[in-house]
Amino acid sequence: MADLRAENLLRDATAQLGELEERWTAARTYLSIDARRARHQELTALAEDPHLWDNVDHARDVTTELGRLTNDLEQFDELRSFLDDGDVLAEFVRESLSTGPVDPSLLEELSSVVSQLRTSLETLELQSLLSGEYDELDAIAEIHAGAGGTDAQDWAEMMLRMYVRWAERRGFGVEIDEVTEGQEAGILSATVIVKGRFAYGWLSAERGVHRLVRISPFDSQARRQTSFASLEVTPLLVDDTAVEIDEKDLRVDTYRSSGAGGQHVNKTDSAIRITHLPTGIVVSCQNERSQHQNRARAMQILAAKLAERARVERQAQMDALSGDRSDNAWGSQIRSYVQAPYQLVKDHRSDFETGNVEAVLDGDLDGFMEAELRRQRARG
């Protein structure tokens, strides 16, 4: 019986190793591993140039790209090594079967190796979902309270916490640049910079209107309330010189931070609000140490938003030629968070859902993001 169990387990493990081998081979193509190796060699040669640091900005770009490529290639090669180890272990089990009973610990090790390989490969495959032009960049995330009065403003603050917690879980840096407090509770809006590789790629899957259904803590009759808040996401461009901004097109206002007690920001007399008159885009920054620093950060955010606007307009022109590919009705929410009369968070695009609402509100969002990125890739 033990040998029969070992034979079945070996057969299953061998089939899974074959499948993982095929997926690894496919990943080598769609992740452009050969091209990345060639680029890695080029960058390595540049990094060894003694004159590299004569241009600090260029040197920083070279070393950053080299570091990322090194990590990616090491991850890919490590997976190859694990696959080879799995094949060797499976062969050892096969030889053991021919001589007598197989040590149960050996079977457990084989099952564990296959399981770890599958998890590692799925992580590698996620890179293919984050291959957009700006996906590797830092992100500017803006949260705005929508319909629902005080409940919506409270919901916007809950969303702010949710995305900050998500970023912290992934080891991303978070800078809260601007928060406008609500009249009674919560916030009207917030601007957050999320720093880390693929921050924009991940957060772009969250762009849209989010709907909360719960028993309102602000209703004396404890009635159920539906409220809305939106998330806008823009890549934080490293080179904002690509966007030309005419100073004549700007209205710059200075003001004092009016936050309720410094919960989110430090009070300052040097907060900056910049309005881009041709487009009506408004950006604010109040969390830097000086008016000059606030203005510089606000201009960086404005440049990023103008670049994103241009990209969206180009995409709209292409959609007009190829037909609208959107399958969502105008103004519909992308996700609902229901706390009453039942517990459910459901994404209306990918149909991914969970009943653990509290975990989601505490930043457990990876499943939703991955499901949406896979849906987008499937749509082409």
Summarize the structure.
By secondary structure, this protein is α+β, with helices and mostly antiparallel strands.
Task: Summarize the helices and strands and which ones pair or pack.
Blueprint: H1 2-30, H2 33-47, H3 56-99, H4 104-126, E1 139-145, H5 149-169, E2 173-181, E3 187-195, H6 199-203, E4 208-215, E5 224-235, E6 250-255, E7 271-276, E8 281-285, H7 291-322, E9 335-338, E10 344-347, E11 353-354, H8 357-361, H9 366-379
Parallel strand pairs: 4-9
Antiparallel strand pairs: 1-3, 1-5, 2-3, 4-5, 6-7, 7-8, 9-10, 10-11
Helix pairs in contact: 1-3, 1-4, 2-3, 3-4
The percentage helix is 40-55%
Number of helices: 9
Average pLDDT works out at 86
The CATH topology name of the largest domain reads Alpha-Beta Plaits
Instruction: State Rg.
Output: 25 Å
Provide the number of structural domains.
2
Cα end-to-end separation: 49 Å
Number of strands: 11
Poorly predicted spans: 259-268, 321-330
Structural summary, described in words:
By secondary structure, the protein is an alpha+beta fold. It folds into two domains: 2-129, Up-down Bundle (Methane Monooxygenase Hydroxylase, Chain G, domain 1); 144-323 and 330-379, Alpha-Beta Plaits, CATH 3.30.70.1660. It is built from nine helices and eleven strands. The protein has helices at 2-30, 33-47, 56-99, 104-126, 149-169, 199-203, 291-322, 357-361, 366-379, and strands at residues 139-145, 173-181, 187-195, 208-215, 224-235, 250-255, 271-276, 281-285, 335-338, 344-347, 353-354. An eight-stranded mixed β-sheet has the order 2-3-1-5-4-9-10-11. A three-stranded antiparallel β-sheet has the order 6-7-8, with helices on one face. It is flat. Mean pLDDT is 86; it is low at 259-268 and 321-330.
